[in-house]
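Mods, move this if it's the wrong board.
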Amino acid sequence: MWWRLANHMFVHGNKSQKRVARKINWKLQSRYASEVGLRATIGKKPKFIHLTGVVISDGVVIGDHAIIHQNVTIGVRDDDDHSVATLGNNVTIGANSCILGGVRIGNNVKIGAMSLVLSDINDNATYICKIQPLLLSATDSAINPGACVASA
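Not the wrong board. Structure tokens:
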């Protein structure tokens, strides 16, 4: 409720209301060890299973009835590209997952725990990212992030 108030004040308010919105958001960040950008758009009835460690960048759009577990990051991919994700309705994101860049996540999608999402996911899919350990010597420079798959 407090974030929604701060979000509304920041998006639609004057200069002093935006300042108050930033203070409210800072208090929420301190209390819950989470950061939800004031320019993010979150639909109706989101459910945060454990709010600790959740980071949602400015500009992210999350549809209705999202379920977000702890330590989830939905943000930018790198400093040069500020595009952010758009999530559909009824999306479930497992713990310790990262959704980075301007990806589109469809409706009724389930993202497994510890997943790294760097590309679009179609509607009604389950996304599981299996990271395979890779041991590199000091002279190796290539990193293989493993295999990530989406199934409908």
